[in-house]
C-alpha cells in the first residue's frame, strides 16, 4: 500500500483478531476521518461517514455514499450491508471519492472486505467464548482440497447470542438491544491452471433478537396528562443503560447470496476479472421507539428486495511506461418498502388520545409503501504513464447512467380501529434517469525507495433518490438530485528505518453538492421527514497515520485527523444551515493502538493489545441541535491472549470505562415531547479459546 498514491487504511486478519473486531462498524472506525452512526441500534445496519460525507436517510430503499464491497461485489441496500466480519483476510478503507477502478461510483469512499478464499491445505479452527450479558460466541472455519491443486473448499461461520445490553426494569420483560446473529459462508476455489481461477462463495446471514429502544432523557407529556400520570412515564428512575418499556419487539434481518469472482491471465499483458453477485433478503424492524412504559411512539418498518451485479474488468501489464485498466458495470435491484408509525395508541390514554378519526378508534398512525426498481450502467477507464521511472501521471473517467422507477407509492392515516381510514395519496409513480461523467487525475513521485509523494483530483457521484418516508402529501414523493463531490488531495507516504517507522500524511479539500438529507419537520402537528438536498458544502482536512515498530515485539499505531466539515449554502424547512457543521461528522478524530508481546517462549507468546478512539462533538441533524448531539468522548478497548501454534486463550474488554454515548439522534421534542436517541454499547468483556487444526 505504501506504493499506492491514495489514502487507504487496511486491517489484516491478525489485527482484526487482536482488536476483537467483529463488525464493519468496528473496523471502519480504525481509519482517520471516519464516524459511525447507528440509526437502528448496534444490531442493525449503520450509517458511515468518511471525510464529512455521509447519509442521514435511514430508509431501507437508499444506497449510501460510502460503498460497501464484499469480495469486490457491491452491496446496494442496507439489508445486504449487515455482514459480520468473520474469517476475513483483510479490510480496506478507501477515503475520498471513488469511481474509476471498480464497482459503482461513490462520493465519500469505499470499504472493501476480502474474505479468506480456499487454499489447497487442510486446515481449520474453532473459537468459543463467553462474556457478560450472558454472551455466547462461536466462530470457525474448515478447509480441505477436493482435487489436489485444482479444487478446494472452505466453510466458515460465526454465531453470537446474548441476553441484551439494555437492562429492562419492567417486570416480566427481558432486556433490550439483544444480539442473536448467525452467519455462514461456503467457498469453492477452482484453479485448473496457473492462468485461471474462479472462487464461488455462498452466504447466509440472519440477525434477530429483541430490538433497540429510545434512550433516557427529558420527557414532556403535558399534552396527554392521562399518560403522563402513569408511573414511570417520564423516565423516572431510569439509568442510561436501562429501560422501562411496555413491549420488547424483535428485529428480523436476513440475506442470502452468491458471489463468483474469476481471474484470467489471458497473456503476459492482459488480465481479465469478472465479478458476479446476486443477493436477496428481507428486513423487518419493529421498535418501541419511545422507550416508555406507555404507547406514545412505535415503528414497524419492513422491506424485501434483491440485487444482481455484473462487472467485467481488464488490466494490462505492458513492459513499457503506459498501462491501463478498464471495465463495465451493470447493476439491477428491486425493493418493496413499507412502514407504519403509531402515535398515542395506549388504551389507557382515553379521551386524551382520541383524535376523532373514527368513532371507536384512538391514537394516530401513518402508513406508506412503495416498490422501487433501479438499473445502473457504467463504463470506466484509468491509465498510468511513467514519465520517468520515479514519476507517474494518471487519469481516469467514468460514465454512469442510472434509471429509477418508483411505483404504487401510497400513504394512509388512521387510528387503532381503522388504520387505513384516510387515504393521503394512492398509486403515485415516479420515473427518473440520471447521467454523470466523473474524472480523476493524479501525479506521484517516488522520491526515494522509502518516500512517495502524490497529488490527485477525484470526482464522485451518487445517484438521485426518492424520499422513502412520504406520509402527509404527494408532494413528499420527491426525488432528490444526485450528489456530487470533487476532492483535491496531496499526500506523502514514507517507510523509514528499515520499516521500523511508517508515516503517511495527507491534506484534502472537497466540494460537496446536493447532500441528500432527511430532516425532521412538523407539518400541521405531524412529524414528517422529507428528503432534501443541501446546495453546497465544503470539507477541508488533514490526516496522519504513524506506525512504529521499535522492536519486533512492539507495534504502536496512531491515526489522527482534523477536518472542517461545513455547509456553505442551503435551507431546510425555511432555516438556513450555512455555516453549520455537516451532519454525522466530527472535526477531530484520534485512534491509538498498541500491540505488545510481553514475553515469548518456545511454546507460545503472551500478547497484549490496548486501543483507544477519540471523537469530537458530532451533530445528528443539520440544525446542529446540541441536545441530540454527541459530545466529545473516548472509547477504550483491550485484549490479552496467549497464543501457540495449535491453540489460543484470550480475555477482552470493549468500552472498558463504560462510556455513555449516543450513536444516533433525531429531534422529536416539538411533536412528541421527547427526542429519539439511541445509545451506544456499554462495557462488554469476556474470554474465548481457539483451537487450530
Can you put this structure into words, describing what you see?
This protein has a single domain, classed as Maltoporin, Chain A. The mean pLDDT is 94. Helix content is 3%, strand content 59%. It has a 22-stranded antiparallel beta barrel. Strands 1-6-7-4-5 form a 5-stranded mixed beta sheet. It is mostly beta strands.
- Specify the number of helices: 5
| Mean of pLDDT | 94
The dominant shape is globular
- Residue share in β-strands: over 45%
Features:
693 residues, Maltoporin, Chain A, 22-stranded antiparallel β-barrel, five-stranded mixed β-sheet, 59% strand
What is the secondary structure topology, with strand pairs?
Layout: E1 8-12, H1 13-18, H2 24-28, E2 34-37, E3 47-50, E4 66-70, E5 73-74, H3 78-81, E6 88-95, E7 109-115, E8 123-131, E9 135-147, E10 151-161, E11 167-168, E12 180-193, E13 196-208, H4 225-228, E14 242-243, E15 251-265, E16 270-287, E17 297-316, E18 322-343, E19 364-388, E20 391-414, E21 422-448, E22 451-462, E23 465-466, E24 479-480, E25 483-496, E26 501-518, E27 521-523, E28 526-528, E29 531-551, E30 554-569, E31 571-572, E32 575-576, E33 588-600, E34 605-615, E35 633-643, E36 647-654, E37 662-666, H5 669-672, E38 676-679, E39 684-692
Parallel strand pairs: 4-7, 11-14
Antiparallel strand pairs: 1-6, 2-3, 4-5, 6-7, 8-9, 8-39, 9-10, 10-12, 12-13, 13-15, 15-16, 16-17, 17-18, 18-19, 19-20, 20-21, 21-22, 22-25, 23-24, 25-26, 26-29, 27-28, 29-30, 30-33, 31-32, 33-34, 34-35, 35-36, 36-39, 37-38
